[in-house]
Amino acid sequence: MRGIPGYRDTPTRPWHPDDPVDVAEAENFLRLYHAEHPEAGPVERRLREVRAEIAATGTYVHTGAELTFGAKVAWRNASRCIGRLYWHSLLVLDRRNATTAEQIFGDLVTHLRVAGRRPGQIRPVISVFRPAQPGRPHARVWNEQLIRYAGYRQPAGGVIGDPRNAEFTAAMEQLGWRGKGESFDVLPVAIETPDEGVRLFDLPEDAVLEVALDHPEYRWFSDLGLRWHAVPAISNMRLSVGGVQYPLAPFNGWYMGTEIGARNLADPARYDLLPILAEELGLDTSRDATLWRDRALVELNRAVLWSFERTGVKITDHHTEARRFVAHLEREQRAGRRTPADWTWIVPPMSGATTPVFHRYYHEADERPNFYLDPVARDLGRLGRANEPPRRCPVRAPAHRTVVLRPPVPADLDLLLGAPVRT
Predict the structure, then answer these.
(1) What's the whole-model pTM score?
(2) At 169, is the secondary structure helix, strand, or coil?
(3) All structural domains of the chain with their residue ranges
(4) Cα Rg for the chain, rounded, in angstroms?
(5) What 3-state class would DSSP assign to 109?
(6) Secondary structure of residue 371 in the 3-state scheme
(7) Phi and psi for 160 in degrees, rounded to 5?
(8) Active site (catalytic) residues
(9) 371-387 residues labelled b (16+ CB within 10 A) or e (exposed)
């Protein structure tokens, strides 16, 4: 079923950077926006404006309200996310005025500070930068997430740090970056712009909220020296809103404990901690039937949840979040909307059958607006290199045009968040 359009990560209409905006997709989005925002008035006038702009330039410019709505609905439609009950709460930061790598990096740092400024209430945030123009290069961040840990391959074999990021780490070193060589070194942010190429930036310490991991019962656990960051900010997925593509639109929610304890720290291809914990716990690892992996996995996840809660940093457990997702399904049904969902991602990676999301079938579809991981972005995030798609003939576009956008940082942002934003 992997090749069926709209199934999981197979979009109905693949995007090519040289393609103009699909007029039908633009119209569908605008009708949706006006239907859910009656105060915006009749849609016909806006449709005429957008059709004319696409005919002249190959694309069109979203208003601030359209962009905010589109980003929120993209989260509402994200079939792999279990935390969509909160889609209304997404803070959308309009960064379409940023052009240089320095400006983009400054906005990314502000994003992380805003998201994590109240650790007990990690805020869902998306920063939307300039959209792609048909036939022209665009800015992007290479990293999969704004915060990732390096992986250093050792001459004798093995990796210090996160093996998932070993290729990307080597690519950053070839570009001149040098880490400490430790298990939890934060990787630089690689920002590529059409005029500057790729530049590397180290995140300031106050932008990286981290939690040291301990256990409520086992004193030896702290000696393992484990920690994890608190703001999972996806940075290499394309936001698609009404046919307009935003290749640089990093977004975050907050962690579900199993993302850290059952995947990042436990997967054999990641930190692979289960054998180490099993040894410390004195478990019989001689055969699978002793369920030593399961017992070690539970204790690792207990440690993650307990450490975040003790430190006052927001996190959720998979049972609670599964119940909230069912509440989201019911709320969307009352609103007359079907909820796209990918079972393989919605069901938690541990104790899945004990959660209410397990014994269900879901609507598998490519609903837009949405987020997409393109092949080039995927390879850049994993390998630090990629092959660009073959170019097509660029569409006709005017040499210059003036577009007035709203300010990238609202002057009263501190009123929304309760404290001044540090930039």
Answers:
(1) 0.92
(2) helix
(3) 58-346+372-389
(4) 22
(5) helix
(6) strand
(7) -95, 125
(8) 81, 84, 254, 259
(9) bbebebbebbbbebebe
